[in-house]
Amino acid sequence: MHFVYLLKSTISPTRKYVGITDDLQRRFLEHNDGRSIHTNKFKPWKLMTYIAFDNLSKAQAFEHYLKSHSGRAFAKKHL
Description:
Layout: E1 2-9, E2 16-21, H1 24-32, E3 45-53, H2 56-66, H3 69-78
Antiparallel strand pairs: 1-2, 1-3
């Protein structure tokens, strides 16, 4: 399975992060341990939601969409 996930910073709630992984628990721990250069300044993180895909290309396409302007608006309204 491939997971597209949305994190929210607990110290800076306006900061969100969208990512993709095949091991959600490991990746979430890496974000909160400061092992990700893109998220270490705003840790700790809270897992807001995730979506599981059995197809990698569909997961990548959805991650790409969530990082777009319209995808951010969608996430703000629905996720």
